[in-house]
Amino acid sequence: MPMSPTVRTCLSDAGVEYELVRHPHSHSSTETAQIAAIPGDQLAKTILLEDEQGYIGAVLPSTHHLRLPKLWDQTGRRLSFADESDIREVFKDCELGAIPPLCTAYGMKTLMDESLSTQPDIYFEAGDHETLIHMRTEQFMRLMEHAEKGHFSK
């Protein structure tokens, strides 16, 4: 599967500059960073969370772990990890596990860990396990302008 149509439309509408980085098929964000030869801190991974109010996408560096209690404090919501079936339903045009950080394009709130803003470049999934999108951080921050920022990973 090439770049997801939703991601392509979002990037086009935002008018951001980016490049596609192809790499051998990978199964995790850690493996993706290794085989694509990029720093793991620059690879943004997205985790789908949910509660009775709906879904939220949490975006953080691939080298970090989500700290749910921090997120609960920040949002005032008791979010938990979404089920695999929910991920498939929400990100219909993406392969499972290749979730892009453009959650607003999929109709949900986005939370972004501020540690990503300190990186010179950002990479993220294009919707499959063989393509990354690479852009300068200032371009990524334009995409994340509506995301709620915070510190919820370590």
Task: Give me the secondary-structure topology.
Elements: H1 5-14, E1 19-22, H2 29-36, E2 43-51, E3 54-61, H3 68-75, E4 80-81, H4 84-90, E5 109-113, E6 121-125, E7 131-136, H5 137-143, E8 148-150
Parallel strand pairs: 2-6, 3-5, 5-8
Antiparallel strand pairs: 1-7, 2-3, 2-4, 6-7
Based on the model shown, name its key terms.
154 residues, alpha/beta, 5 helices, globular
Overview of the structural elements:
This protein has 154 residues and is α/β, with parallel strands linked by helices. The protein is built from 5 helices and 8 strands, in the order H-E-H-E-E-H-E-H-E-E-E-H-E. Strands 1, 2, 3, 4, 5, 6, 7 and 8 form an 8-stranded mixed β-sheet that branches. It is globular.
